Amino acid sequence: MEEKNSPNRTLRFQRRAILKMMMAAPLAGWMPLASLAAEVAKAMPGSSVAGEHASDGAADTYQPKVLNPHEWRTIQVLSDCILPADENSGSATEAGVPEFLDDWLDYQRGELLTEIQYGLTWLDVECRRAFHRDFVDCTSGQQEQILDRIAYPHKAAPEDVRVVVFFGHLRDLVLGGYYTSEMGIRDLPYLGNEPQASWQGCPAPVLAKLGLI
Amino acid sequence: MTEAMLNSNLYDAIIVGSGAGGGMAAYNLTKAGAKCLMLEAGGWYDAARDSKWLEWVYDAPHRAGASATQPFGGFEAVVGGWEIAGEPYSNAPGSDWMWFRSRMLGGRTNAWGRISLRNGPYDFKPYSRDGKGFDWPISYEDLAPYYDKTEELIGVFGSAEGMENLPDGKFLPPPAPRCYELVVQRACKSLHIPCIPSRLAVLTRPLNGRPACHYVAQCERSCRLGSNFSSPATLLFPARETGNLEIRSHAMVREVLTGPDGRATGVSYIDKKSGQEVQARAKVVVLAASACETARLLLNSRSPHHPNGLANSSGMVGKYLMDSVMSDVNGFFPSLMDLPPHNEDGVGGMHLYMPWWNYRRQRELPFSRGYHIEFDGGRRGMPGLGVLNGSERFLGEGYGLALKQKSRRLYGSFINFHGRGEMIPNRESYCEIDGNAVDQWGIPTLKFHFQWGEEEIQMARHMQETFLEIIQAAGGQVIASSEPAKTGGISRGGQAIHEVGGARMGSDPETSVLNPHCQAWDCKNLFVADGAPFVSLADKNPTLTILALAWRTSEYITAQVRAQNV
Questions:
Q1: DSSP H or E segment with residue B393
Q2: Enclosing domain of residue A153
Q3: What is the overall mean pLDDT for chain B?
């Protein structure tokens, strides 16, 4: 995930270079570091990335570590079912969620990987039973028909409980992966991680909306 | 980064551990001219070089997510945890103590919450007040000057409130509250619960050459600029500038060595890099290895003169172990949905908190001591993998566009409440050497015994009820709580990482390990400067008291050495 190609790369490289400069800075005193921090602040204002809506992901170059090619394809389709593109931001795949998921499964291994692989297989089994093809080859309407069985715990059939749990975990991971991506952070939006010269407290428009002024 | 490994120096003092207590001892002793050797079991850490400050989550390996070996994720300045490979411990049947150990220069002060609360007058004399537990051999007045000096050195923001048993300090101005904090404050006002500026060791003004905070809510990563307190940046590096401090990292101390007269002569440690056993000699030994590690060291330092372990003629080493009572509830607040986007980072911690407010009602309650409330939430801090976890109930079910739109609306509308309460020390909570079990260096390990008392359970239950009241008064709904029912959702012992006791101070050598100056009754040139001397654990987080106490102990050491009494 770290070295992926993306339109943001230049900006990121710049930011890294600044951080590197900070790391190399002598320990002689605090002020030079403080002025570097001001440079960091200057180099990474939220506005500088505002115009950017292109792909965060790198599906073309990423080599999955634990998922096989079919599982990888399924995870991509499934992630985009969970978080599709809308007028504000791109889809899970565009945000690099499948890459995150594969890396995370490789990192955690164990029961989580088993559970995800079980769930992906279940989707194919059910799709073949109903539509005679794998999940990824189904129409979006057919995919939704299968997902609707497992995405609503209160309505789900008792025999599907294991795969309902799978879907809940996968959805948490997709949400986590999406909203920790550069695209997702802008989608929320999280406006922090910007060094401030002083702290202003809660802005007036928010105070007003909360009835605090 | 370690200095020369072998030398036959006779140091004025050896300090074991480089956290809050060890750092403060080194700072004071070196400034008084003493040649000190500090031994740290972990590796070197310098936030100016090693901190992950400002790094984006999407640039971090595995999105900085938590794992068994990194319980707080990839960003926090933590090396160590509750489980460390090669360094086991055990629990007696019925106990489930969690022993947190830090293995890095500066210990937990790199990542800690910076909450800096003074113990009040009641907190030093709890037995006199309610007949439970034990009094300290010192009073608030004894420690107050050292709280003053510590706050002036490290920098603590806060506000003068003049509240009961909540002494005001030498404060820097507090930062303005965040939006969600104001919502909670308004609810607390209606419930007559005080919600006041918190007291954190974070600079809101430049101090002693350190710049003020840049407000990116990342104190737990340790501050690259030194704008909050950590032992390396605030104490150890300045102490080294005196030329009197030598620090050896990767030095795991096995035992304190004593001479035929029973006095400490130095320590024996394992140089973890070479695996060699090394002995270092000193006129004074200061243990600041963290409460349980200090107890372990004492118990492992057996000699003909100290057959039950060093400084243990009372049998009190390892006894009366304590940790803070914790219980949590998370709430969802519809009023925080759809707010205009805003930066809510602030300092790396809460700007407001609720100190204990029921001193006058204590007799009506089913527990004798107090707790305070910490809370976080809103849009504070960089989103992590769990940013929308557990919100399923409010995200609704399903997937697709509706899920995405709802996620955006729900972001920032959660607030989590955490209680931190006082545990009454009990006889059933202690550590001891675990038979013949040893760690990877052959050092005998600890076995823990730990029990909450009924009052702690009642306190946790009260926390849950109070959090519920606050959430309701603020127009919210409870979404998750820490397994309430029977136990009030009480934490496991050690989970708060506030463990103290195990070498308590006292005025009677029969019932305490240390005298009122944290000097071992049985060994005049042995001192303890971490949380082990604590006689009780107030609801106040222990670090500020560890620092103030270590300062006082250091001054005493210097005076005693000058008077040739040790």
A1: helix B392-395
A2: 69-187
A3: 95
The two three-digit tokens of residue A26, written as one number? 């002598």
Count how many domains chain A has: 2
Whose tokens are 């009494």? That residue is B565
pLDDT tens column, B531-561? 999 999 999 999 999 999 999 999 999 999 9
Asked whether B99 and B225 are in contact (CB, 8 A), the reply is: no
Q: Does one domain contain both A39 and A86?
A: no
Task: State whether residue B244 sits within 8 Å of chain A by CB.
Answer: no
pLDDT tens by residue, B484-517: 556 778 999 999 999 999 999 999 999 999 999 9
Rounded Cα–Cα distance for residues B360 and B130 (Å): 13
Residue A55, burial from CB neighbour count under 10 angstroms (0-12, 13-18, 19+): buried
Distance separating alpha carbons of residues A139 and A120, to the nearest angstrom: 17
Please give the average per-residue pLDDT across B328-335, as a whole number.
94
Residue B407 φ/ψ region, left for φ over 0, alpha for ψ in the -120 to 50 degree band, beta for the rest: alpha
CA A23 vs CA A36, A42, B417: distances in Å: 11, 18, 36
CA gap B484, A7 in Å, rounded: 49
- Preferred mutation among B186, B343, B380 to probe A, highest tally of A CBs within 10 A: B343
The angle that helices A140-150 and A161-179 make with each other, rounded to 10 degrees, is 110
Confidence category of residue B2, pLDDT binned at 50, 70, 90: very low
Q: How confident is the model at residue B20 (pLDDT cuts 50, 70, 90)?
A: very high
- Report pTM: 0.91
Q: Percent helix, strand and coil across chain A, each rounded to 5?
A: 60, 0, 40
Burial level of A107, CB count in 10 A (0-12/13-18/19+)? middle
CA atoms within 13 A on the CB side of B114: 31
Same domain for A11 and A74, yes or no, is: no
Greater model confidence, B148 or B487: B148
pLDDT of residue B7: 52
Give domain status of residue A205, yes or no.
no
Residues A163 and A115 in one domain: yes
* Residue A8 pLDDT exceeds 90: no
Which of B176, B209, B403 is closest, CB to CB, to A82? Answer: B403
Give CA–CA dist B500/B530, Å, rounded.
8
Looking at the complex, does the CB of residue B68 fall below 8 Å from at least one CB of chain A? no
Classify residue A206: in a domain, yes or no: no
Q: Is the residue at A168 inside a domain?
A: yes
Q: Is residue A198 part of a domain?
A: no
In one letter, which amino acid is B319?
K
Q: Round to whole Å and give the CA distance between B170 and B193.
A: 24
ipTM of the complex: 0.92
Q: pLDDT (tens digit, 9 = 90+) per residue, A122-160?
A: 999 999 999 999 999 999 999 999 999 999 988 999 999
Helix (H, G, I), strand (E, B) or coil at B360: helix
How confident is residue B452, by pLDDT bands cut at 50, 70 and 90?
very high
Consecutive H or E run containing A11:
helix A9-24
Q: Count, in order, helices (H) and strands (E) of chain A.
A: 9, 0
Based on the fold, state whether residues A34 and A113 are members of the same structural domain: no
Q: Which residue has the tokens 């937990």?
A: B108
Structure confidence at residue B390 as a pLDDT band (50, 70, 90)? low
Q: Do B59 and A2 make contact, defined as CB atoms within 8 angstroms? A: yes
Q: Which domains does chain B have, with CATH numbers?
A: 1-53+101-116+229-320+500-566 (3.50.50.60)
Contact status of B370 with chain A (Cβ, < 8 Å): no
Half-sphere exposure of A112 (CA within 13 A, CB side): 16
Query: A76 and A40, same structural domain?
Result: no
Note the pLDDT tens digit of each residue in B39-89: 999 999 999 999 999 999 999 999 999 887 788 999 999 999 999 999 999
Check CB contact under 8 Å for B216 and A192: yes
Residues 122-141 of chain A whose Cβ lies under 8 A from any Cβ of chain B: none
